[in-house]
Every structure is written in C-alpha cells, then in structure tokens.
Amino acid sequence: MRSLRHLRRSAVLPPLVLTLWGWVLVWSSLSSRLDLLLNAAFHPVVVIAGVVLMLLGLLQLRLLGRRRAGVAPLVWLLSAGVALLILVLPPEPSFSDLAASRPDSLPAAPSLSFFLPPEQRTLTEWVRLLRSQPDPELHAGDPVRISGFVLDRPGEPLQLARLTVRCCLADATPAGLPVDWPEEANPQPDQWFSIEGTMIVQERNGVPVSVVKPNRMTLIPRPDRPLEP
Fold first, then answer.
1. Rounded to an integer, what distance in angstroms lies between the CA atom of residue 96 and that of residue 149?
2. Looking at the DSSP assignment, which residues form a beta bridge with residue 192?
3. Dihedral pair phi/psi, residue 163, rounded to 5°
4. What is the DSSP letter of 174?
5. The predicted structure's pLDDT at residue 94
6. What are phi and psi of 217, to 5 degrees?
7. Where are any strands of DSSP class E within 33-172?
8. What is the spatial distance between Cα 55 and Cα 44, in angstroms, rounded to a whole number?
9. How far apart are the C-alpha atoms of 161 and 123, rounded to whole Å?
10. Contact at 8 Å (CB) between 140 and 67?
C-alpha cells in the first residue's frame, strides 16, 4: 500500500512541473521581467507557450487516475527547482558589461525619425542621426533630452547608452553618446540617468565630436522597458 502511494505521488510530479513552468512563463510576462530579456513584440508568444504548458499539465493531472503510475526521474525534481529559482530570483543583467562586449553597429531604424524636433529624439535616434550626419557643427546647440544607462568601455570615457534588440539580449546592440559629465555627478556603470542639455562640439583624441552637455541630470530607476527595438 505504501509503495502504491509513493508511485502515485511520483506520477503527480511531471504534470505539476509542466504547470509550474507554464506559470513561470505567464508570470514573467505579467511581472515585466521579460522586458529585461526580450523584445516586447515576442511577449505574446511566451504567454501562449505558458498557457499551453499549464493546460497540458492540468490535462495530465486530470487523466492521472486513468493511467498507470510511474516513478518520476530526478530530472523532474531538478526542473521544478530551476523554475522555483526563476520565480524567487529576478534577472539582474548588467547592461554595461553586456554593451561593453558588443560592437556598436546599430540595426537600421524602424522608421525615419531624423526630422523630429531635437528635444524629442531618443538616445538611439540621436546616435543614428550623428552617424548619418557626422559633422558635429550641424548639431551644435541643439537641445537634448535623453535617458539611458552609464556604459563603461575599457579605455574610453563613460557614455550614456541604450540597448536595442531585434529579439532578445542575445542580439542586443549598444548605442552610446559621449557626455561631458559634471565633476559632482560621479556616474557609475549601470546607473540610469535622465539628462536635459545641449549638444556641443569637443575635441577628443584630436577629432571634433558631438558631446552632450548636461544642464540637468537626474538619477532615475531602470525603466520597466529598458530595451529599445
């Protein structure tokens, strides 16, 4: 009798783990954790996959009494442990470390946004514009209103940057702007700042470049959706 009960408890574990993983996927989307890892366009796919897993797990539980119980392998226990860890420990990727190891070759802009007023351009739009119109004198004096994280590249001054993704962090591409940091700012990698200022021209390594001159800097929390398309 005791052996039979053990077999039945073991048979319950696989459908419970399926249901748990389904909930992990759905909850990750509802709690905005996916915004740290995946382009928002793909969130519905994750939610649908989670719902399917939950339905499969519940269906297996319903049919459990009609089939022979079996011993659950250790892999189901390990899988359940990983799922619980994901629920308990949120992802905390270092955008600065990731961006420092990636080439800054931005994908093509989804739409032409260069004709926006300067103060309405995002950081990524500014980077694309400066690459298409590299003469810094064209933009000197333009107002700037951007936000991003502090990017620390070895051997280079700290920049303000954003990450763009086609799908997920695996294909993330950094877009960074030079900043004339005030001495009192003391920016640290991965800190997020909102900056209002102007675009100026500075000579760096003997080359004139466009640099953001802050008039107002605010330390802000990481936004709910830090990745840009």
1. 7
2. 149, 220
3. -110, 130
4. E
5. 81
6. -125, 135
7. 143-151, 159-164
8. 16
9. 7
10. no
Ranges for all domains in the chain classified under CATH 2.40.50: 96-228
Alpha-carbon torsion (111, 221, 101, 25), positive or negative:
negative
Placement of tokens 């359940």 in the chain: 80
pLDDT band at 183 (very low <50, low <70, confident <90, very high): confident
b/e per residue, 30-47, with b = 16+ CB within 10 A?
eeebbbbbbbeebbeebb
- Asked if residue 224 lies in contact with residue 193, where contact means CB atoms within 8 angstroms, the answer is no
pTM of the model: 0.71
For 195-213, the DSSP string reads EEEEEEEEEETTEEEEEEE
3-class state of residue 226 by DSSP: coil
Segment 17-33, tens digit of pLDDT: 888 888 888 888 887 67
Give the burial class of 108: count Cβ atoms within 10 A of its Cβ; 0-12 exposed, 13-18 middle, 19 or more buried. exposed
Query: Residue 197: is its pLDDT beyond 90?
Result: yes
DSSP reduced 3-state for 91:
coil
Q: Which fold has domain 96-228?
A: OB fold (Dihydrolipoamide Acetyltransferase, E2P) (2.40.50)
Instruction: Provide the pairing of β-strand 207-220 with 192-204.
Output: antiparallel
Helix (H, G, I), strand (E, B) or coil at 12: helix
C-alpha–C-alpha distance, residues 175 and 162, integer Å: 5
DSSP-derived secondary structure letter, 169: G
| Two structure tokens written together for 39 | 């382009």
The amino acid sitting at 107 is P
